[in-house]
Structure formats: structure tokens, C-alpha cells
Design a protein that fits this description.
Elements lengths: L2 E7 L5 H8 L5 E4 L5 H12 L5 H22 L2 E5 L7 H12 L3 E5 L9 H6 L2 E3 L2 H13 L5
Parallel strand pairs: 1-2, 1-3, 3-4, 4-5
Helix pairs in contact: 1-6, 2-3
Length: 149
């Protein structure tokens, strides 16, 4: 059995690489949104034309990015959503809700300081991890039945 895993959420740390590196040897395919912040912000106007109003600039980018996000979540067996410390990731919360609405297996990744703010998101998840290594161990267990250590 293999898994298609979509890695959603914050783009300012190397959590994705930690999970991908830790899962080497497992039958897992990873996908994610565009993680180049500038490209993600500006894709709509770069492709579809400039906007003088920042709202429409952001709206065009969000719509273009949503094509990739919707496809990635729809095709995923497991969706991992990371909430980082630096910014409020409303998009990550939306992705978690979208994945839950589609009945996807959801793993939420965040520090203990976000427990209260994300209690509803956590309640929709099948696992809530604090560290990327824990996500890897969940994937390993699901694929092999082996416990850590």
C-alpha cells in the first residue's frame, strides 16, 4: 500500500523537507502548494495581468493557487497541515477544513501554544503532532505497522 500525502500550511520553515527526508524508504508520494512566497503572492497578476487594487491582486493569486491546492487535497490519501508560529495561517485552516469536508485523513502539525486556538481543527484530525518526526512515525506505522524505536 502506498500513500499520496499533501503537505499544506506554513512555508517559512523546513518542516516539509524534514518529513520528506524522514519518510525515505516508505511508499509515499508528497505534493504541496507552491512554497515560494513571492511566486505564490504574485502568480495571478504575473499570469493574468496587473491589478492596481491590492485586493484584486491577492484575489487573482488565491484563485490560481486554489487550482493546485484543490487538486492536491482531492488526490491525497493523507493531508498534513502545519500551523507555524510566525504568522496566522488562515489558508492552512481553510485547507484543513476542506480536507475534512472531503473525508481525507488529516494530520495537524503545530506547537502546544496553538492548542486552544486550533481545538476545532484538531478535533477534525486523526492525529495531532508537534514535530515533523511524529508525522513521519504516523506514516511509517500506517504503512508498515511498526512502532518507533
Amino acid at each position: 500500500m502506498g500513500l499520496n500525502v499533501y503537505l499544506s500550511g506554513e512555508i517559512h520553515t523546513d518542516w516539509r523537507e524534514q518529513i520528506i527526508d524522514g519518510a525515505k524508504g516508505l511508499d509515499v508520494t508528497f505534493n504541496s502548494p507552491v512554497t515560494d512566497h513571492a511566486a505564490s503572492d504574485d502568480c495571478g497578476v504575473a499570469i493574468l495581468g496587473a491589478e492596481s487594487n491590492k485586493y484584486w491582486h491577492d484575489h487573482k493569486g488565491a484563485m490560481v493557487n486554489a487550482i493546485r491546492t484543490r487538486k492536491g487535497i482531492a488526490d491525497a490519501d493523507v493531508v498534513v497541515v502545519r500551523f507555524g508560529d510566525k504568522y496566522k495561517q488562515w489558508n492552512a485552516a481553510f485547507d484543513a477544513g476542506y480536507a475534512a469536508a472531503l473525508g481525507k485523513s488529516l494530520i495537524v502539525l503545530h506547537g502546544s501554544d496553538h492548542q486552544h486556538a486550533l481545538k476545532e481543527v484538531d478535533a477534525a484530525a486523526l492525529a495531532v503532532a508537534e514535530h515533523p518526526a511524529q508525522v513521519v512515525e504516523v506514516l511509517r506505522y500506517v504503512l508498515t505497522g511498526q512502532l518507533p524505536g
